[in-house]
Design a protein that fits this description.
By secondary structure, this protein is α+β, with helices and mostly antiparallel strands. 43% of the residues lie in helices and 9% in strands. It has two domains: 180 residues, Roll (Elastase, domain 1); 160 residues, Neutral Protease, domain 2 (Orthogonal Bundle).
Length: 356
């Protein structure tokens, strides 16, 4: 692993710290307590991630399943403690058990593996059959899910603001895609490259959900994390690729801060320079390109985005303009100057990102 262009090694959570900060300030201790504990736990895990990067992750021996391009999933139960990975409760090929959370995690890992292999010919997260490990029931009332550079971890939520983090399949796909980015472009987790990092996870998280459900671009809801917010929350999801800034507007969570275009780009020192906020701009560009082209979003727009992510030309410090320019070139290379090229070019124009 690398050190991401000199910035802090990536520890990627689905719920950004600025959202948890907002909840932690709530007057009701039932809401504030879990948010504060989650922030503390995330800080600890972020430090652990830094040490893992310095010391190196454990080597993984090549197995027959890896060589045969088959998923190799292991689900562990932390039993509401904080030690990882926990107790092994389901392994590849075993039957579903009584724990729905375990079964959802297993299915979500499989759906992610399937999209990358069947659509893009990528054998797991690293392209070389990396086993997919996940831990469920992490800590008590833990309001997050994360990729720590080696595995997935899911909290159960507090039941007040957030529900079980295995419920939305796109959350699982989102976090695992951080692993794909880690092994490919390794986008720096700060500012515009960090927002691109987050956007790549939203894009492929959404595509994983669409692929699993057999949805076309027109049928998809283009929401990230639908079903994760508890009933008391005024909102439908964590983010909307179709209409950034409209996913929630709640007394406790606040209002969804995502911009849809560069006119509303947010400059902030929080959230690693707004990585979960300004990701709304490239997210919306992908939505525009995919819906303009119609059909299955993973086949054309998704292919272009995948080509850029894995093509070797996307550098760690890439700006929105760098990425947009590469997608236009990739669309031309793969599809010539047809409707795909025009759709991608126009999508970036609509969100105000120039191409060179």
């Amino acid at each position: 692993m690398t050190t991401n262009g000199g910035f802090e090694p990536v520890f990627c959570t689905i719920i950004p710290p600025h959202v948890l900060d907002k909840v932690a300030q709530a007057d009701d201790p039932v809401l504030a307590g879990p948010a504060r504990r989650t922030l503390e736990r995330d800080a600890f895990q972020r430090t652990h991630r830094r040490m893992t990067t310095v010391l190196g992750a454990p080597a993984v021996a090549l197995s027959a399943a890896m060589a045969e391009e088959k998923a190799l999933r292991s689900i562990y139960d932390a039993e509401h403690r904080q030690n990882l990975p926990g107790t092994l409760v389901r392994s590849e090929g075993s039957d579903p058990g009584q724990d729905a959370t375990v079964n959802r995690a297993y299915a979500g890992l499989g759906a992610t593996f399937d999209l990358f292999l069947q659509v893009y010919g990528r054998n797991s997260i690293n392209g070389e059959g990396l086993p997919l490990d996940a831990t469920v029931h992490f800590d008590e009332d833990y309001n997050n899910a994360f990729w720590n550079g080696e595995q997935m971890v899911f909290g159960d939520g507090d039941g007040e603001i957030f529900l079980d983090f295995t419920l939305p399949i796109d959350v699982i796909g989102h976090e695992l895609t951080h692993g794909v980015t880690q092994y490919t472009a390794n986008l720096t987790y700060f500012g515009q490259p960090g927002a691109l990092n987050e956007s790549m996870s939203d894009v492929f998280g959404s595509l994983i959900k669409q692929y699993a459900l057999g949805q076309s671009a027109d049928q998809a809801d283009w929401l990230i994390g639908a079903g994760l917010l508890a009933p008391r929350v005024t909102g439908v999801a964590l983010r909307s690729m179709k209409a950034p800034g409209t996913a929630y507007d709640d007394d406790v969570l606040g209002k969804d801060p995502q911009p849809a275009t560069m006119d509303d780009f947010v400059r902030t020192g929080r959230d690693n320079g707004g990585v979960h906020i300004n990701s709304g701009i490239p997210n919306h560009a992908f939505y525009l390109a995919a819906t303009t082209l119609g059909g299955n979003a993973w086949e054309k727009a998704g292919q272009v985005w995948y080509d850029v992510l894995t093509g070797g030309e996307l550098h760690e410090q890439a700006s929105f303009t760098d990425f947009a320019t590469l997608t236009v070139a990739a669309a031309k290379t793969r599809f010539t100057e047809g409707e795909e090229f025009q759709a991608v070019l126009k999508a970036w124009e609509q969100v105000g990102v120039p191409t060179r």
